[in-house]
């Protein structure tokens, strides 16, 4: 069966935008529907929407993009295009890691959990902190010294500079063991995680290298109660609608590090690759 596609223009009266993911592929877009394909039932020309594109193809770094109906949702008028596009991939990753991988309820029910979020000032991390605090969760976070106050403002209970001895070893200032680690950074070995984990803890690695995959396999084969979980995003439109609802209600915010016109996309790419953005980098087609 043919996929149901529609053309989406990124530039609209709200300021159409795209965001860069950690690999530089433009996947997250916000704009206005200008054409719908045969069989599309949920959208019409003129609808303000957000969409996530396929990771294998990208395609958002342009004035127009083609999005699948199943991966597109309407954008509330109360939410700007920049806020919405900055939420999509990072928000879905944070939401899935917290609610599915770490099994944390965002309605405040469930047992108290202690979690660590690494790189908490980044695109996924800053959303993960906010979402985790909707649950019955004590959040420890790591980031650079310049972002400590920023991460505290998001609701983190403890924030550690990752360049300090405690930050480098991932120790909680209060001595808590973590029930889950939402790992948004890179290059941290299992030997650093393990001493800080509770008996049945999980390390959810959002950008898993081959070593994380191997560790995951070994832990399963050895029946270890402490698990490494290589993360694979499974985006669902209902989860995106939920996150947009939180934005609309003011329970969640997307922090924009910087904005670039499409003509300066190379500069945006350079900043993304540098890895020190606070929040999201936005590209505006105009």
TrEMBL record:
<protein>
    <recommendedName>
        <fullName>Enoyl reductase (ER) domain-containing protein</fullName>
    </recommendedName>
</protein>
<dbReference type="Pfam" id="PF08240">
    <property type="entry name" value="ADH_N"/>
</dbReference>
<dbReference type="InterPro" id="IPR013154">
    <property type="entry name" value="ADH-like_N"/>
</dbReference>
<dbReference type="Pfam" id="PF13602">
    <property type="entry name" value="ADH_zinc_N_2"/>
</dbReference>
<feature type="domain" description="Enoyl reductase (ER)">
    <location>
        <begin position="4"/>
        <end position="283"/>
    </location>
</feature>
<dbReference type="InterPro" id="IPR011032">
    <property type="entry name" value="GroES-like_sf"/>
</dbReference>
<dbReference type="GO" id="GO:0016491">
    <property type="term" value="F:oxidoreductase activity"/>
</dbReference>
<dbReference type="InterPro" id="IPR020843">
    <property type="entry name" value="ER"/>
</dbReference>
<dbReference type="InterPro" id="IPR052733">
    <property type="entry name" value="Chloroplast_QOR"/>
</dbReference>
<dbReference type="InterPro" id="IPR036291">
    <property type="entry name" value="NAD(P)-bd_dom_sf"/>
</dbReference>
């Amino acid at each position: 069966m043919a996929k149901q596609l529609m053309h989406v223009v990124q530039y609209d009266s709200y300021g159409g935008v795209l965001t860069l993911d950690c690999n530089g592929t433009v996947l997250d877009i916000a704009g206005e529907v200008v054409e719908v394909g045969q069989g599309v039932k949920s959208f019409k020309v003129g609808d303000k929407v957000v969409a996530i594109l396929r990771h294998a193809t990208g395609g958002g770094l342009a004035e127009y993009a083609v999005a699948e109906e199943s991966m597109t949702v309407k954008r509330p008028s109360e939410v700007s295009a920049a806020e919405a596009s900055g939420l999509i991939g990072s928000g879905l990753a944070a939401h899935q890691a917290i609610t599915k991988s770490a099994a944390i309820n965002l309605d405040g029910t469930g047992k108290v959990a202690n979690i660590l979020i690494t790189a908490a000032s980044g695109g996924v991390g800053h959303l993960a902190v906010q979402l985790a605090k909707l649950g019955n969760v004590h959040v420890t976070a790591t980031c650079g010294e310049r972002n400590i106050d920023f991460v505290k403002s998001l609701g983190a209970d403890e924030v550690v500079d990752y360049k300090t001895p405690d930050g480098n070893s991932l120790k909680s200032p209060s001595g808590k063991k973590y029930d889950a680690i939402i790992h948004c950074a890179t290059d941290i070995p299992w030997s650093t995680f393990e001493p800080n984990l509770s008996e049945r803890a999980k390390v959810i690695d959002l950008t898993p290298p081959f070593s994380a995959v191997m560790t995951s396999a070994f832990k399963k084969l050895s029946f270890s109660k402490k698990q490494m979980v290589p993360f694979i995003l499974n985006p669902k439109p209902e989860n995106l609608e939920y996150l947009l609802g939180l934005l609309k209600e003011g329970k969640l915010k997307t922090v924009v590090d910087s904005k670039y016109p499409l003509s300066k996309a190379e500069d945006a790419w350079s900043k993304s690759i540098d890895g020190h953005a606070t929040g999201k980098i936005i590209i505006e087609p105009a």
